Amino acid sequence: MQISDNWPGYSLDLFTYPQHYYGDLEYVLIPHGIIVDRTERLAKDIMQDIGDNDIVVLCVLKGGYKFCADLVEHIKNLSRNSERFISMKVDFVRLKSYHNDQSMQDMQIMGADDLSKLTGKLSFVFLLTLFFMFCKDIVGTGRTMKVLLNNIEKYKPKMIKVASLLVKRTSQPDGYRPDYYGFEIPDLFVVGYALDYNEHFRDLNHICVINDHGKAKYRV
């Protein structure tokens, strides 16, 4: 689903959201209900593609936790209502690539060392009919994802799929596209649905565009 550059968004007056964020947001870019519907559609696509393979999900924290949890829950529900049961295992890695609203040159990866315990299993992914997938919140230039993929490849997985809720159109794209994504959005700094600005706005259900007042209020 593509959101155009001239899309004005939805008025904040149409929705309920935490009162402590009043005055900090421009508009609602994607309402929570649309996020839920789109995530369910992605779950159906993934279920159709994986066949009888099991799934190992690597959730990218912190921003990806709500998307990952909702996506996994949709896949579980679809599995319960189908003739085939999909087994899923979940692990986590944490990335830090922003200071305030600016992307940092050096990305910090935390938790990746714990993935070494998966090496034996992932080296026979195809033979063990396992399916390896990343759950990420947002893909921007693709630099962040490439660094993460390079770190994971040393564990020699046979199959890697990337799922991202958002793909951002940037002035310097590198051509990277995830295998599954929910929305293609303009080059905006968005918050909500676990996406943060200096650890604020994660409790906002909708995906919104933060305004200058909000950036100044929560700047560190």
What does this protein look like?
- This protein has five helices and nine strands.
- Helices cover 25% and strands 30% of the residues.
- The longest helix is centred in the N-terminal third of the chain and has 19 residues, at 32-50.
- With 220 residues, it is α/β, with parallel strands linked by helices.
- It has two domains: 1-30 and 188-219, no CATH class; 33-185, Rossmann fold.
- It is globular and about 50 Å long.
Topology record:
Elements: E1 25-30, H1 32-50, E2 54-61, H2 65-80, E3 88-99, E4 102-110, H3 119-122, E5 130-139, H4 143-153, E6 160-168, E7 180-185, E8 190-191, E9 207-210, H5 212-217
Parallel strand pairs: 2-3, 2-5, 5-6, 6-7
Antiparallel strand pairs: 1-9, 3-4, 8-9
Helix pairs in contact: 1-2
Quick synopsis:
The protein is of the alpha/beta class and 220 residues long. Helix content is 25%, strand content 30%. The longest helix is centred in the first third of the chain and has 19 residues, at 32-50.
Number of domains: 2
Q: Helix share of residues?
A: 25-40%
- Total helix count? 5
Q: What structural class do the secondary elements suggest?
A: alpha/beta
Distance separating the two termini:
34 Å
Mean pLDDT: 81
CATH architecture of the largest domain: 3-Layer(aba) Sandwich
What is the molecular shape?
A: globular
Question: Which strand order does the major sheet show?
Answer: 4-3-2-5-6-7
Would you tell me which CATH topology of the largest domain applies?
Answer: Rossmann fold
- Report the C-alpha radius of gyration, rounded: 18 Å
How many strand segments? Answer: 9
Question: Which CATH top level class of the largest domain fits?
Answer: Alpha Beta
- Which consecutive residue ranges, at least 5 long each, have pLDDT under 50? 121-130
